[in-house]
Amino acid sequence: MRSASHSRFGDPAKVLELVDSELPTPAAGQIRVKMVMASIHNHDLLTVSGDYGFKPELPAPAGTEAVGTVDALGEGVTHLQVGQRVAASGRGSWADYYIAPGASAVPVPDEISDEAAAQLVSMPLSALTLLAFAGVERGGWIVQNAANGAVGKALAKFAVPRGINVLGLVRRHAAVEELAALGIGNIVSTSDEGWRDHVTAITQGAPIAAAVDGVGGPAAGQLLSLLGQKGVLISFGLMSGRPLELSASDLIFKEAEVKGFWLAKIAPRLGAEKLASLISEIVQAVAAGDVRLTVSEVFPLSEINRAAAAAAEPGRKGKVLLKA
């Protein structure tokens, strides 16, 4: 079978290669999935480049999330059936077949397309968990940058039934219209003159309790400057590749708090019942069309290098996917 792999860390568009691998055998509690479509997430690219919080032993298979059909069941997996369509996370999902934990595989209803199912769990779950992590009460305000990213769009939508107000920052005016087409408002382009006044007009001067930074660099400092007294700045991404640039004055005089967020560490602490509840909310919201998981481009697995390059391009309107 074909599998995207890398034997060294570096630019994913250059170091990834399609290799012939043996068909994997699921161990107890695992399933083998025949991949239909797979997502290329930012954390996947960072793992290949060697810049993520987890460094795999080389050579390493690439990819972490996909949708496909159950091809084989490991011992003890009784709640799934061979041929069943599932969204499943597992190392090496950019392949014809991959292994995933049976307990975390999510059966996909017919109402959800393969394009949406391929990105059903990781980013929406990050968004839901971030909302809880921020600790903002009903009626309060959250500001986030990268508001047109997968997490940003999902967070804005999941905040609505919770009565939490979300203000999003983007770096180009066209993104404001793109988000409006998805039913997401309260978006400000930092490329516009007087954008801070626009922020104040939207919030009507109400204090902003939490900020979610997915960019780093000076963009993190912008968010910190918008926080109210004793606000919290949450760092969950580093799209710019630059260290956080924060004002000491904002930190000191606002008594602000800076916290790091990594779903890989937080999800295991949620407990099985809570995790299942969040996944159920995601499936229902996507199936109903309340949360739309958009796609930029779809590449065949054979064009993994072109796909990786496209996924790294700024200004995308959705995920780049791989198709078996």
UniProtKB/TrEMBL annotation:
Keywords: Fatty acid biosynthesis, Fatty acid metabolism, Lipid biosynthesis, Lipid metabolism, NADP, Oxidoreductase, Transit peptide. It comes from the Bacteria. Residues 11-322 form the Enoyl reductase (ER) domain. The keyword Magnesium does not apply. Its EC number is 1.3.1.104. It catalyses: a 2,3-saturated acyl-[ACP] + NADP(+) = a (2E)-enoyl-[ACP] + NADPH + H(+). Pfam families: ADH_N, ADH_zinc_N. The keyword Oxidoreductase applies. Belongs to the zinc-containing alcohol dehydrogenase family. Quinone oxidoreductase subfamily. This is enoyl-[acyl-carrier-protein] reductase. It comes from Pseudorhizobium tarimense.
